[in-house]
Amino acid sequence: MNNNLGYQGYRQPQRGASDELLVRISQGTACGEYLRRYWQPVALTEEVGDLPRLIRVLGEELVLFRDKTGRYGLVHKQCPHRRASMEFGICDENGIRCCYHGWLFDIDGRILEIPGQPGEHAELVMKQTSLGAYPVKEFRGLIFAYLGPIEEMPEFPVYDTLEIEGQTLVPYRADYNCNWLQVLDAILDPIHTSFLHSRMSRVQFSEGMGEIGELLFYQRDMSFLGTNVRRVGDNVWVRVNELVLPNYTQAGAAFSADGTRHIYYGRSAFSRWVVPIDDENTTAFAWAIFGERADPEEYNTPEGPDLIEQGELMNRSYEERQRFPGDAEAVEGMGVIADQKMEHLVPSDKAIILYRKKLRKLCRELEQGAQAGQVTGLWQNPIPTYGGDTVLNIPPNGQDDAELLRDIGDRVMQIQFDAEPLQGAARDDRVIDALKALEAEYRR
C-alpha cells in the first residue's frame, strides 16, 4: 500500500477539463455539425396534437407542429416577418400561420400567403424569404428530423430489430440533466451492469447480470460492440451492447435473460437514440421492445420503459435515488458536463476509448470537407445489428474457464458477422443453426 496517496484532498483537484470537441453540440461546433448529418428523433408522436409544440434539440429552439392534413413540420421559432414566436402559431390546412399577422408557411418553410398586403409586394417577399424548416419523418410513434444541409440528407435508416414479427414496440423518452456523451458512454461499458444494476444496491434486472464475466470489444465500420460473456452454472451467456454511429444504441433483454435458460439469438429489448438537447441536457428517445426475442409482455406497463432504460423509475425522491441509484444517478452525478480529462480509464473502458477516438476523427474530417458516413451506404434497409442475448449450454470442460468463455463469446460474434449480408428469416436461420452446432461441438 502506498501511504503517500492518502489524504490528498488539498493537492488533488476536484474538477478538470472536458473533452470540448465532443461535448459541444450547438450549430457550428465540430460535433454538433457531425450529429446534424443524421436523422435524430425529436419527440414522441403522442406529444404533438392540434397545437404547436416548442422543443429544443442540438441547442436550437424549434417549433414542431402537425397541420390539419396530418403533415408534420419543424420550423425555426421566430417568424421572419416581425420575429413573433411560432409556438403560438395556428395549425392550418396547409401548414402553420403566425399568430401576429397571419403569414402562412408550408411545412418546408416556404411562404404560401401574406394576407393584408399588396399582391406584388407579397409575391416579392414570398420569392425572397422563407421560414427556416427541417425535414420531418414520423416512424412508429417517434418523430425524427434531419437538421443538416438539405443536399446531404441521407436515407432514413430502419434497423432490423424493429422489423421482427410478433413484437410490440412502445415509444418512450427519458430525460437526463447532463451532457449527452456521459449518457451515451454507458452502453459501451458492459461491466457497469454487474455493479450498478446488480451488486451495489439491489438486483434491478436479472440475477445473472451480477456475474462479471469476460469482456470482448469489437469495432465495425459504423458500430461498436461491447460483449460480456458470463458463466451461469453450466450455461454460457453472451450479451451484446451496441452503439451505431453516431448515437443509436441497443442491448439485450432487461428481464427475460438471466443466463439460466437457452436463448438462440435473442434480440434487443430497447432501441434508442441518445439525443443532445443542448450542452447540459439530453433525452433518450427509444422503443421498449416486448416479445419472444426481447422482454416479456408482462413488463409492458407504464413503468416498464423506465425500468428497461435504467433499472429504476426516473422520477423518485432523493432518498430513493441514494439508496437505489440507476443510470441517471450515475451519469448526472458526474456533473452537467463531465470532466473527461480527469478520468482514469481501464481495460474495461476499451470500447469507450475506441468510440471517442473514432468520433473525434470523424468530426475533424467533416470540418475538412469529408462526407459523414451512413449505415445506409453500407447496407440496404433493414440494417443488420447485434444487440441481444445468446445463452448456450456449455459446461466447464477442465480448461481455464475464462479462456473458454472468451473463445465461445468470440465465436458467437463471428457467427453473427458471417450472416451479416442476409436479412430476416434467412439470417435468423443461419445464425441459430450455427449456434446450435457450436453448442454441440463444445459438448462433445
Description:
There is one protein chain. The protein has about 450 residues and is of the alpha+beta class. The protein folds into two domains: about 40-150, Rieske Iron-sulfur Protein, CATH 2.102.10.10; about 160-444, Naphthalene 1,2-dioxygenase Alpha Subunit, Chain A, domain 1 (Alpha-Beta Complex), CATH 3.90.380. The protein has eleven helices and 20 strands. The strands form four sheets. Strands 12, 13, 14, 15, 16, 17, 18, 19 and 20 form a nine-stranded antiparallel beta sheet that branches. A hairpin with a 5-residue loop joins β7 and β8 (about 110-115). α10 packs antiparallel against α11 (about 425-444). It is globular and about 90 Å long.
> Would you tell me which CATH topology of the largest domain applies?
Naphthalene 1,2-dioxygenase Alpha Subunit, Chain A, domain 1
- Share of β-strand residues: 25-35%
* Helix share, percent: 10-25%
Question: What distance separates the N and C termini?
Answer: 47 Å
> How many domain regions?
2
Number of strands: 20
According to CATH, the homologous superfamily of the largest domain is Naphthalene 1,2-dioxygenase Alpha Subunit, Chain A, domain 1
Supply Rg: 24 Å
Shape: globular
Reading off the top of the CATH hierarchy, the class of the largest domain is best stated as Alpha Beta
Mean pLDDT: 96
The biggest sheet, with number of strands, parallel, antiparallel or mixed sense and barrel status, is:
9 strands, antiparallel
Question: What is the annotated CATH architecture of the largest domain?
Answer: Alpha-Beta Complex
Sheet/helix structural class: alpha+beta
Count of helices? 11
Uncertain runs are none
